[in-house]
Design a protein that fits this description.
Layout (H helix, E strand, L loop, with lengths): L1 H6 L4 H7 L4 H6 L7 H15 L4 H7 L2 H11 L6 H15 L3 E8 L2 E8 L1 H6 L1 H23 L7 E4 L6 H8 L3 E3 L3 E6 L11 H15 L7 H11 L8 H7 L4 H10 L4 H19 L4 H7 L5 H12 L3 H13 L2
Parallel strand pairs: 3-4
Antiparallel strand pairs: 1-2, 2-5, 3-5
Helix pairs in contact: 4-9, 5-9, 6-9, 6-11, 11-15, 12-15, 13-14, 16-17
């Protein structure tokens, strides 16, 4: 939460002090914990200072890598997606003791519920709404990782009035309705899909590669956009509009801020894909079709064209030349 706040130009230490606790004290003694009123104050502060009532929603969107990391853990004891969802539900209280996740199958539909403690709902409204938003998007990212494709729910219900229904629809990939609790409805056919553990080697390598390329020490806006695109590079589908929405600015404002730094959104998106494509192919562990899949290309030929534009070589030529160099060492 605080790392994302920093990426949004919010001073984490100052936000914590305004919320009633000291960040350095917490880092030195994490076992002391943060009280529920302090967490409520922190959510309220981050929403107010960022001027983003959907801060929790956008926080979850920025945490695709964390979702893939969770997937990597839960598949170790899962035969299929249904088992994995059960495992994922058991992890929710580890993130927040005030929420539980329950999965139910009825006919050809499966329902995923997020059930809050009633005291959170009544006493801590900011925590309740922001964490509900967060879990909703994070769950979708987990499903993407389990199914190795972008999941489109049949419907999603939220238990409160939404300030920006179109933004919720963008992130949840379906129409949004009002309901009694958070409920994500999926086609039950998803549950029968077996987990192919070998495919998760690609995800694990993706996480390791991305962490190695993050521009952690740079504070310019272009680097923040680069890091956002890099952190959401799995099945790469980030657009100018979706990236601007995550930063809570218009697409025109994002373009202007990048222009002021002498860059464009497309240049940064290409830079991200180029970094990852070269890294994957340099490892010698992945076929071109796998690299195309990881970078979100629908066709292998699209990656081949892009790679030749970036490097002057096709992926096959690049790999052969690299093999020759290595054999001579």
């Amino acid at each position: 939460m605080l790392a994302y706040a920093s990426a949004r130009d919010i001073d984490p230490g100052l936000a914590c002090r305004r919320s009633g606790f000291d960040l350095d004290d917490f880092r030195n003694n994490p076992d002391a914990g943060i009280s529920a009123p302090q967490i409520e104050n922190l959510w309220r502060d981050l929403v107010t200072v960022s001027n983003d009532p959907l801060f929790g929603l956008h926080l979850a969107e920025s945490m695709q890598l964390a979702a893939l990391g969770v997937v990597g853990q839960i598949i170790q004891s899962s035969r299929n997606v249904q088992d994995a969802l059960t495992q994922a539900g058991s992890l929710v209280p580890l993130v927040s003791e005030s929420f539980q996740m329950r999965t139910e199958q009825v006919g050809k539909k499966v329902f995923i519920y997020l059930l809050p403690d009633q005291s959170v709902k009544s006493d801590y409204p900011h925590t309740y709404q922001q964490m509900t938003d967060y879990f909703a998007v994070f769950t979708i990212h987990e499903l993407d990782g389990l199914l190795l494709k972008k999941v489109a729910p049949l419907a999603v219900e939220f238990p409160y009035e939404l300030s920006n229904r179109s933004e919720y629809a963008r992130l949840m990939r379906c129409n949004i309705r009002r309901g009694k609790e958070l409920k994500i409805t999926l086609d039950s056919a998803y549950l029968k899909e077996e987990i192919i553990s070998a495919n998760y080697d690609l995800q694990r390598y993706l996480i390791e590669s991305i962490n190695g390329h993050l521009q952690k020490d740079k504070t310019d806006f272009g680097s923040k956009v680069f890091n956002h695109l890099l952190s959401n590079a799995y099945l790469f589908d980030a657009t100018l509009e979706s990236t601007a929405a995550n930063f809570n600015v218009s697409a025109r404002t994002l373009q202007r801020k990048l222009h002021d730094e002498g860059r464009t959104f497309q240049q940064i998106a290409d830079d991200v894909r180029r970094h990852l494509a070269v890294t994957y192919l340099s490892s010698g562990k992945h076929q071109v079709k796998d690299v195309a899949f990881m970078l979100g290309y629908n066709e292998q030929s699209a990656l081949v064209r892009a790679f030749k534009r970036w490097t002057g070589k096709t992926p096959s030529e690049f790999s052969r030349q690299l093999a020759v160099v290595r054999s001579g060492q």
